[in-house]
Amino acid sequence: MQLDIDIEEWPDRDWADLAERVAEAAGQVAPELANERLVASILFTSDSEVHTLNREWRARDKPTNVLSFPMLPRKRLLALAPDGPPEMLGDIALAHETCAREAAEKGVPLEAHAAHLICHGLLHLAGHDHELSEQDAENMEALEVKALALMGLADPYGDRT
Fold first, then answer.
1. Is 128 annotated as a binding residue?
2. 96-106 vs 47-58: helix axis angle to the nearest 10?
3. Where are the domains of the chain?
4. What's the whole-model pTM score?
5. CB 1 within 8 Å of CB 90
6. Per residue in 96-134, pLDDT tens?
7. What is the three-class DSSP state of 61?
8. For 2-150, CATH number?
9. Which pLDDT value is given to residue 161?
């Protein structure tokens, strides 16, 4: 997968490298994301911008930690041949202030929480949805945990045995 990354209003760190590593790990646990034809955009931005996007596109008048806007239906994604022109998978936007606050509340580095949210967003772009059923939520969380473990990051949902 190719990433188009735009960084606004986030502290000076290598967010692009982090996003690339997350995409690689996500592709290992959700092989449909490993197709080299796919393109996803990731915007690291402010709560204010994510609030605006959430209000305009989801009719929710509040900021949130991450938004995802899929552009390729899952059925088409799963049937996508490895050869051909680029295909836009979708867009992800992360809100800095909310992400930083949540990371502090969880007692984890901002980078680890951002990695989790990028993975979460990429899985949404691939058609995974935790809001459909408890089983779908568990399946999506398990993929996130596996991807983050590949990066050496702890389970963001707590210890699992």
1. no
2. 110
3. 2-150
4. 0.94
5. no
6. 999 999 999 999 999 999 999 999 999 999 999 856 668
7. coil
8. 3.40.390.30
9. 42
